[in-house]
Specification:
Strand content: 15-25%
Subcellular location: Periplasm
Protein name: Spermidine/putrescine transport system substrate-binding protein
Structural class: alpha/beta
Radius of gyration: 19 Å
GO molecular function, one term: polyamine binding
Main location: periplasm
CATH class of the largest domain: Alpha Beta
Shape: globular
Number of strands: 14
CATH superfamily of the largest domain: Periplasmic binding protein-like II
InterPro entries: SBP, Sperm_putr-bd
CATH architecture of the largest domain: 3-Layer(aba) Sandwich
Order of helices and strands: HEHEHEHEEEEEHHEHEHEEHHEHHEH
Number of helices: 13
CATH topology of the largest domain: D-Maltodextrin-Binding Protein, domain 2
């Protein structure tokens, strides 16, 4: 069963839980070790890279900052500045990445990612965070609003990600803020108060999409703030899941990609081979099928434009969108500290 397998791998955290080619270690989210996504690398070298896994962006950063060694890591966009400020990464040589020009420019529209010193980030994948729900137990009208997460009817029946970025995206949206790059103290306080109310309904915070899917499949919860992949896993198990991306307050989007770790122990040539495999057009279909995410390459996305999974989970909506683009490190730290207090019941 896919859910059990991915959960087991995720439990390995920063240990090389999926050992293969010893000359390239990829520090990644569990689930991205699917070979079809980087098939070109396997075709060239005969094996997958060695994978080590983490559960959230802040955990990955802390482990790398504490000395864990890998060659490339897969942060989401709001973390790139933190890696740069810590001196953990170096620019990519895009002359060695032939498909770089196929990347949708919107994913590089920040000096955090690309400046006069070089290209620091290769965005590869993007998705949505929205309401996953059991269509047999939760009426459609209940998920027409994000206030379902504070509805007393669902006390003990909801799940939120154990991710500061994602829960704050939810809380800001629920309280009327759709741009987190310029949050006032009043907006922060309103979101924090809402998140404290939502905490009262939470049965469990999920650490990775397979855990979220397990919580729903087991009947422990009916509603979750979910990425696309949790929904894909539930669909594969024929669970009655809906994915509401257009509640009246909106939903959020995010994108992730790879940074090149400085003083990495493995092969630099293989790091580029891995990125080039990820950017092949065939990776678009593989990524969509395995995880439900969109690809940042316009050529890769063109190969899946008519897929139902794109229409259901990645298409544009008429509701507001909070884009999880880089915000200030100070704001992220403030959010993280407040989230830890909320989880602790304060």
């Amino acid at each position: 069963m896919r859910l059990m397998t991915t959960t087991f791998l995720a439990a390995g955290l920063a240990l090389p839980a999926f050992a293969a080619d010893p000359e390239l270690t990829v520090f990644d989210w569990a689930g991205f070790e699917e070979p079809e996504i980087f098939q070109g690398y396997i075709d060239k070298h005969g094996d997958s890279p060695t994978f080590a896994f983490y559960g959230d962006d802040d955990e990955a950063f802390q482990k790398l900052a504490s000395g864990f060694k890998a060659d490339v890591v897969h942060p989401c966009s709001q973390m790139v500045g933190k890696y740069r400020d810590a001196g953990l990464i170096e620019p990519w040589d895009v002359s060695r990445i032939p498909a770089f020009d196929t990347l949708d420019p919107k994913f590089l529209a920040s000096e955090v990612f690309k400046d006069d010193d070089g290209v620091w980030y290769i965005p590869t994948d993007w998705g949505a965070t929205a309401i996953a729900y059991n269509t047999e137990t939760v009426p459609q009208e209940d998920v027409s609003t994000l206030q379902v997460f504070v509805d007393p009817k669902y006390q003990g029946r909801t799940s939120l990600p154990d991710s500061s970025d994602d829960v704050w995206a939810l809380a800001y949206l629920a309280t009327g803020t759709t741009d987190w790059t310029a949050v006032t103290d009043e907006q922060f306080d309103a979101a924090a108060e809402w998140l404290r109310q939502a905490h009262q309904n939470v049965a469990a915070y999920w650490a990775d999409p397979s855990e979220q899917a397990q919580l729903m499949a087991s009947g422990a919860v009916d509603i979750a703030w979910s990425w696309n992949d949790g929904v894909v896993y539930l669909q594969e198990d024929n669970y009655p899941v809906g994915f509401e991306r257009a509640p009246k307050e909106g939903s959020s989007t995010f994108f992730c990609g790879f940074v090149n770790l400085k003083d990495a122990p493995g092969s630099e040539d293989k790091a580029y081979d891995f990125i080039n495999a990820w950017l092949e057009p065939s990776a678009g279909k593989a990524l969509l099928d395995a995880i439900g995410y969109g690809h940042t390459s316009t050529e890769a996305m063109a190969t899946v434009a008519d897929e139902q999974a794109v229409k259901d989970g990645l298409s544009e909506t008429n509701a507001p969108i909070l884009s999880q683009t880089p915000n200030s490190p100070e704001q992220r730290e403030r959010q993280l500290a407040e989230f830890e207090k909320i989880k602790a019941g304060f």
